[in-house]
Each structure stands twice: as C-alpha cells, then as structure tokens.
Design a protein that fits this description.
By secondary structure, the protein is of the alpha/beta class. It has two domains: about 30 residues, no CATH class; about 290 residues, Alpha/Beta hydrolase fold, catalytic domain (Rossmann fold, 3-Layer(aba) Sandwich). Helices cover about 45% and strands about 15% of the residues. Strands 1-2-4-3-5-6-7-8 form an eight-stranded mixed sheet, with helices on both faces. Helix 3 links the parallel strand 3 and strand 4. The protein is globular.
Length: about 325
C-alpha cells in the first residue's frame, strides 16, 4: 500500500512538472501551439519542408514525392494572408498518387520578402512560372497548377502568360473578376483591409468571414491568439500594400482578362456561401474558360480547400483524369 502511494505521488509530481514546463514553453513561445498543429497536419499529409532560390527570392515549400516518376506534379498556391499550410487538408485528402509542391509565395509565410518589392498579380505570376520550371517541372510529367483566392488570380495569369509551364489549371474561389457586390468587395474598394486583425474581436470577425462551417474554424487559444494578433498587426502595412495592388489598381481584373487565353484543361471550384469572392465569380470565369469543369459546393465559405477537402480532392482528380492537355 505504501509503495503504491509513493508511486502515485511520484506520478503526480511528474504531471505537475510537465504541466509547469508546458506552461513556461507556451508563455515563452505563444505561437508554438499553432506551429505544432501545422506540423501535425504536414506530417499527416506526408509532406516535408524544402527551400529553393528562384526569381530572386528564397522560397520555402512543402513537398511530397510520388513513387511514379511520371505522376503529375500539383503546385498549390495560397491566397491573401494565407500560407502553404492552407493546402494541407487537401494534400492529405489526395493521398499519395501525385507529387505535390506547396510554396509560400514570396513575401508571405516563411518565404523571403524584400522591402519595396512588387507582390501583385503580375509580378507573382512571373515569379511562380520561374519557380515551377526550377522546382516542379519534371520530364515526362504534367504540371497541374491550383490557386486559391489571390493565388487563383496568380494561377490564372501564370497559365495564360506562361502556358509552357502549366498543363492543367484549377481556380478555387479565385480573385481577378468583377463579382457580385458584397460587403468584402465594398470595403476593399473603400480602401480598407477587411482581413485586418488588431484585437480579439477582429480576429474572430476574420475567421467568421473566411469560414462558413463552424467545425472547420481553427481554435486559437490564449496566449497563441494574443501572439497571432500582434503578428498580424506587424503585417498590416505589407498586407495593405498588396491589397492596394490586387484589389484597387489596374491589375485587379487582369486575371479575368487573361483567362480568355487559358486553353488548358481547367477546373473552377467555389463555395456557395463564400463571403469574400462571391460565387458569381465562378460563372464570370466560366464564360472566359468554356472548357473548364464547374464545381459549386454547398455549406462552405471562402476556404473550400479546408472546409471541403474531400470534395475538392475529387474535383482535382477529375481535372487530371479528364481532358487532354494542350
């Protein structure tokens, strides 16, 4: 009995020590929980982190190789305020049949940002084409370019202006056309950043805007939430400079204009409840890309690739398996 009590006491002391160390770790590194969750998702999708120098920038990207040398390479491009981690659920849902390359665009995430550089649609599409040729292109296999939101606009321009780099293209909730008026678009035209985060209320508003499905919204406990808010405040000038270019300059509709020159097999995927890029944008792109498969999902918002990864994965497989590359 005494031995059992001593064992329980030791276990209790160990638990208290571990809890104290965990609390200290979280206090010193408040974003550690966020990074740990991203690492869990990356490992769950069997992705490794890599880096490369391309287009004058250091790129950080997630990579998963395929056993087949001729397997298509999927290049996944994130949106405004996003990062490579947004694509992890879709990468996992696709399984191991394709080679996958998911970069942080220059200026975003862990990739290099240069003071005063242009990170608009045109500049990023030119950089992306160079990155594809350096990292993604393999002899005898296709490159399938997938872009979400701002990344969708960049993908559309890349497919149109650099057709030799892209064999198939998928646009997910893509920016770049004049969609039906909504609150987000009006705020952008008024000079505001609807994604700006400066306190707990604005962080929650940001999540509520991009997600429709409550179960898909990330849980960000304190102190990680406070650290994330401070980080987003620090990012505000950069975010505003990019939004001014892609949302209000003469570049803002270039992706839609360029889409008329996309003749590769294509996919257009939206969510009906998207409060950022209204679903009317799907039909506007479809007029310009009559060869595109159209997929409109229900009960999801702007983050289709997180809220509906299985349905999005099925659409990507259909894009790859149907149609002949140009």
């Amino acid at each position: 009995m005494l031995k059992r009590r001593r064992t329980l006491t030791k276990l209790a002391l160990l638990a208290v020590t571990v809890a104290a160390l965990l609390a200290l770790w979280m206090w010193r590194y408040p974003l550690a929980l966020v990074h740990a969750e991203f690492t869990r998702q990356r490992l769950g999708a069997d992705l490794s982190l890599q880096d490369a120098q391309a287009a004058g920038h250091r790129w950080v990207y997630a990579l998963r190789d395929s056993d087949r040398a001729d397997a298509p390479t999927l290049v996944m491009v994130h949106g405004f305020t996003g990062s490579k981690e947004n694509w992890y659920p879709l990468a996992k849902a696709l399984g191991g049949r394709y080679r996958i390359v998911i970069p942080d665009l220059p200026g975003w995430g862990a990739s290099e940002r240069k003071p005063g550089a242009d990170y608009g649609f045109v500049a990023q599409s030119d950089r992306l084409a160079q990155f594809i040729e350096m990292v993604a292109r393999r002899p005898g296999s296709e490159v399938v370019l997938l872009g979400h939101s701002m990344g969708g606009g960049i993908a559309a321009l890349t497919a149109a202006e650099h057709p030799a780099s892209v064999d198939r293209v998928g646009l997910f909730d893509a920016a770049g056309v004049r969609f039906k008026d909504n609150q987000f678009g009006a705020a952008v035209l008024d000079g505001a950043n609807p994604f700006a985060v400066h306190d707990q209320a604005s962080l929650q508003r940001y999540l509520d805007t991009v997600f429709h499905d409550e179960a898909s919204k990330p849980m960000i406990p304190w102190p990680a939430s406070s650290a994330l808010i401070r980080w987003r405040i620090a990012q505000a000038p950069f975010e505003q400079s990019v939004l001014d270019r892609i949302g209000r300059s003469d570049e803002r509709f270039l992706p839609g204009d360029a889409a008329t020159r996309i003749d590769q097999p294509a996919l257009l995927l939206w969510c009906r409840q998207d409060e950022v890029i209204d679903a009317s944008a799907l039909d506007l792109y479809a007029v310009r890309m009559p060869q595109a498969q159209k997929v409109l999902l229900d009960e999801c918002g702007h983050m289709s690739i997180i809220e509906k990864p299985a349905a999005a994965a099925a659409a990507v497989v259909s894009l790859i398996e149907q149609g002949t590359p140009r």
